[in-house]
Amino acid sequence: MASFGTLFASTAVSQATFGQREVDQSTFAAIAAPRGTTAHQLLILEQVSNARPCWSESGSNPVLVDPLLLTFDFTGICGRSTDSNGYSIRVNGEDLALQYSLRVVNRNNDLVLIGAPSNRSQPELQIARANGYTQNFAKLTLNPGWRFTKRTFGDRVLGHVYLTFEGTLPTPSPSPSPTTPSPSPSPSPTPSPT
């Protein structure tokens, strides 16, 4: 397995091309959006202006989301990123869009946002979770150290949203490998004196 240092060694090209700008975290929401009958995909919403709320939240474990922007013309009010053209992972100044895809998976009855590596020898990144399962829209809470930023090109802020991490990534927990119990010898009866 590659070390995190070599995995995220930045290239001059990617750093020279795009930068990042900090944003108000409260104006963004990562959402597990239903896709089909049982799957979910990542949807990132941004509250661009206060003209109308873009979403509402209710409940807990998971927090359910009502995407209000679907009920009105949200132009200039809400931002919406629905695929890799609108969002990607950025770690220590490097855009990892070509190395990782963002996916929402159901793990142990919890919706989890992961960075799935295109190279299977690289570690999976766990980025956020819903703390429960629903077939509806659910808020994904970013794991410690992760935050939203916006992509920049020169002095220009673009619409692309980064899920950003700076520093040493937490080491992924190894999956427990199944073990087969070894047979233990049966005790032999002890002969009794006669």
The gist of it:
The protein is built from 2 helices and 14 strands; from the N terminus they run H-H-E-E-E-E-E-E-E-E-E-E-E-E-E-E.
Summary keywords:
194 residues; mainly beta; 7-stranded antiparallel sheet; 2 helices; 5% helix; disordered N terminus
Can you walk through the features of this model?
The chain is globular. The longest helix is centred in the N-terminal third of the chain and has 6 residues. It is 5% helix and 41% strand. Strands 6-3-2-12-11-10-9 form a seven-stranded antiparallel sheet, with no helix packed on it. A five-stranded mixed sheet has the order 1-13-14-7-8. A two-stranded antiparallel sheet has the order 4-5. The N terminus is likely disordered. β4 and β5 form a beta hairpin. It has two helices and 14 strands, in the order ααββββββββββββββ.
Helices, strands, pairings?
Elements lengths: L3 H4 L4 H6 L1 E4 L5 E8 L3 E9 L8 E3 L5 E3 L11 E4 L5 E5 L2 E2 L4 E7 L4 E7 L7 E5 L8 E5 L3 E8 L2 E10 L29
Parallel strand pairs: 7-14
Antiparallel strand pairs: 1-13, 2-3, 2-12, 3-6, 4-5, 7-8, 9-10, 10-11, 11-12, 13-14
